[in-house]
Design brief:
heterodimer; A: mainly alpha; B: alpha/beta; Rossmann fold; 6-stranded mixed beta sheet; 3-stranded antiparallel beta sheet; 9 helices; about 40% helix; globular
Chain lengths: ~300, ~260
């Protein structure tokens, strides 16, 4: 009888099967994340909703009152950018530290190591969905009583798809940075800088149309805008807005004379498809890199 | 040599480590220019082969750096081997359930209660929450925790955490126990309990591999001794025989170390 080796799997299918065997552990890791995040806090879970709400209040004040943006339902537009952005940035930043934080555990106990960053992504995903729940309750149920609210759009059926795509994106990036951070702890500082700046470059506080209409360079070379929209996080924030909210023209955000009367850009399905394809590649690449690195974690200097 | 009789079969196992020195970017660049390899290899185990019959208790001894812990980590799948084969099987030929007692409190989180940690650590060892609830009471009783189990681990003393770790690991119904120098946990009474438990595991036909420097423990528990020296098996066999040779070797090493 040939010997059956205890070697861990090497193909991606094998890795996924091994992970499935440890799904109980993944569940435990997620509940542990959720439990200890708000340990010793009186408000507990409410803390996952308060920060985005405060952000919306401050940014609404800043953009509407200080900078004079006239758009109606502005908080609905802002929040539909802030919720996916928060998942993207905190999910990746949390996961980047996860292997280092749980280092003593993986040095001594066997487990599929991807379970640790995945647990971070999933627990942040729970907050992400919770954020959307609050969003829909606020704008479909509560706001109509105050003459606000947003109409139901049939495109809402695409909403779950974008949620899945963004989760895939965060997973791929998280696995990549979690593995990289074991060897180069500069990753933390790089991520902080990148996310701080990207918050303003990505269409979080404004619709992506503004990039197209306000830059003469982009108008002269439209491919720059296509490139921008191929970036998955910009594409997904734009998609969320497009599927949930009615399109609004660029002049409702910026009343410069050259924008008056310009139509909102139509949704570009081809570019969106490209961004989805890139996302799948990122997820695949991140997992492959993690698997390549994960046996070196315990042997790092 | 079949897998029906042998719980563990190790063939031609070797493990290299790459030694990385923390260097500056400048030195690294210079090394590339000088064409010096930045990594040095270090072999922790050379072609180690042995097999452990089902139900046997094996002690692994040797000086520091002889590869004992590396061997145990490889059996526990914490390291990936460089080459060779390790097969660990249960009686029916399926992959064995392993209880790694390498570090008893490694899987714990201090901000969770004892009860939550039991479920969590159980999942780390591959058990479902239902299986863990079934043996929950006997884990708590064995670890002598009482109502403390519902408080956070942060407030526990070190001994209580180690007792809980030992208790969880041995209650997960393993086929093979891997023990690294951890039997010396807790006070004397708990140690006696651990030894009694090891005896019980032995009588139940569980296979045990343990690493220790305490030769009296070896005499007390082991049925066979593997002596590792610089990554090779120096001697493998009967407890009395190997220990005698090892004592002679250690005395000689102490003497030469002393004069040099």
């Amino acid at each position: 009888m040939p010997l059956r080796d205890n070697e861990p799997p090497v193909t991606m299918r094998g890795e996924l099967r091994e992970l499935w065997k440890f799904r109980e552990l993944l569940k435990m890791l997620v509940t542990r994340e959720l439990k200890i995040r708000y340990k010793n806090s009186v408000l507990g879970f409410v803390w996952s909703i308060i920060p985005p709400l405060m952000q919306v209040l401050v940014f609404t004040f800043l953009l509407r009152n200080v900078l004079g943006v006239p758009a109606k339902n502005f908080s609905a537009y802002l929040l539909s950018g802030i919720i996916p952005w928060t998942f993207f940035s905190t999910g990746i930043q949390d996961a980047s530290q996860s292997i280092v934080i749980n280092y003593t555990m993986i040095r001594k106990i066997y487990m599929p190591r991807e379970a640790i960053p995945l647990a971070n992504v999933i627990s942040n995903g729970v907050h992400f969905l919770l954020g959307w729940l609050v969003y829909f309750v606020a704008f479909y149920v509560v706001a109509p009583f105050f003459h606000g609210g947003i109409p139901f759009l049939p495109t809402l059926i695409f909403f779950p798809f974008v949620v899945v795509m963004e989760t895939l994106l965060v997973t791929g990036c998280a696995l990549f940075v979690a593995a990289l951070n074991v060897f180069y702890e500069d990753v933390k500082f790089i991520l902080q800088t990148v996310f701080n700046l990207a918050f303003f470059i990505m269409p979080v506080l404004y619709p992506s149309d503004q990039i197209y209409y306000t830059s003469s360079l982009v108008r002269k070379h439209p491919w720059i805008f296509t490139l921008y929209m191929l970036n998955p996080i910009a594409a997904f924030i734009n998609a969320f807005r497009h599927f949930i909210l009615q399109p609004i023209g660029p002049s409702s955000f910026n009343q410069s004379p050259r924008l008056i009367g310009k139509p909102p850009l139509p949704f570009d399905w081809v570019t969106f498809g490209g961004a989805c394809l890139i996302t799948v590649l990122i997820a695949w690449g991140g997992y492959t890199y993690f698997n390549y690195r994960k046996w070196q974690f315990v042997e790092r200097p | 040599m079949t897998s029906a009789e042998n719980a563990i079969i190790v063939q031609n196992l070797h493990k290299h480590f790459r030694i990385r020195y923390r260097t500056h970017l400048k030195t690294r660049m210079l090394n590339i220019l000088k064409r010096q390899p930045p990594l040095q290899e270090f072999t922790a185990l050379h072609n180690v082969s042995f097999s452990v019959p089902r139900g046997q208790t094996v002690a692994v001894i040797g000086r520091n750096g002889s590869g004992k812990s590396t061997l145990l980590c490889l059996l526990a799948r914490v390291y990936r081997k460089t080459g060779g084969i390790i097969q660990m099987s249960a009686e029916d030929g399926s992959p064995a359930r392993i209880a790694p007692l390498l570090d008893l409190s490694a899987g714990f989180h201090l901000d969770l209660t004892g009860a939550e940690n039991i479920l969590f650590y159980g999942a780390v060892l591959g058990n479902t929450a239902r299986e863990m609830r079934a043996c929950f009471d006997s884990i708590v009783e064995f670890a002598e925790l009482g109502s403390k189990v519902d408080t956070h681990l942060r407030n526990w003393n070190e001994g209580a955490r180690l007792r809980l770790g030992f208790s969880i690991a041995v209650h997960t119904n393993p086929d093979i126990l891997l023990v690294d120098e951890v039997l010396a946990v807790g006070d004397e009474a708990f140690q006696a309990k651990c030894y009694a438990y090891i005896r019980k595991m032995q009588s139940l036909g569980k296979t045990i591999v343990f690493v220790t420097h305490d030769l009296r423990t070896v005499e007390r528990v082991a049925q066979r001794v593997i002596w590792l020296n610089q990554g090779n098996i120096q001697m493998d066999g009967d407890v009395g025989e190997v220990l005698q040779a090892y004592r002679v070797f250690s005395a000689g090493a102490a003497f030469t170390d002393g004069i040099s």
